[in-house]
Specification:
Blueprint: H1 2-130
């Protein structure tokens, strides 16, 4: 009877030991799965962060391109306005030059006309004296 109880006790101990080993194995597997999940989560977070950084880099690049375009556009507009102003000034100078030429021609014509009138007057006076 003692031997039977001893064997039952040993069998129970072995069974408990087996259960304990199974529990430990399950706990280790659970831990390993948790580590895998944590690693996957960390990897996913890193990828999300990398994508976020890439998106921010792209946005900054696009913003820089827009600013560059606007700066170039403004420079072109300033150059265009300067060219228009230069053309306006040149046109005004040309008009002033043409007016000056016209005035000079008018003055020369007036001088010629006055000289011709004086000569005619003198000729008329000579003709009258001769008579």
């Amino acid at each position: 009877e003692d031997e039977k109880r001893e064997q039952e006790k040993l069998a129970m101990l072995r069974y408990l030991e087996k259960l304990q080993k199974e529990d430990i194995t399950q706990l280790e597997m659970k831990k390993e799965n948790q580590h895998k999940i944590m690693a996957d989560v960390a990897k996913a977070n890193e990828e999300i962060q990398r994508q976020k950084e890439e998106r921010l880099r792209q946005e900054k690049f696009q913003e820089m391109k827009v600013m560059e375009y606007l700066k170039e556009k403004e420079a072109r507009e300033i150059a265009y306005q300067a060219e228009l102003e230069k053309q306006k000034i040149e046109k005004e100078k040309e008009i002033a030059r043409m007016r000056a030429l016209q005035e000079r021609a008018k003055d020369q014509q007036a001088e010629k006309d006055a000289l011709r009138a004086k000569r005619i007057q003198e000729e008329v006076e000579r003709d009258q004296r001769k008579k």
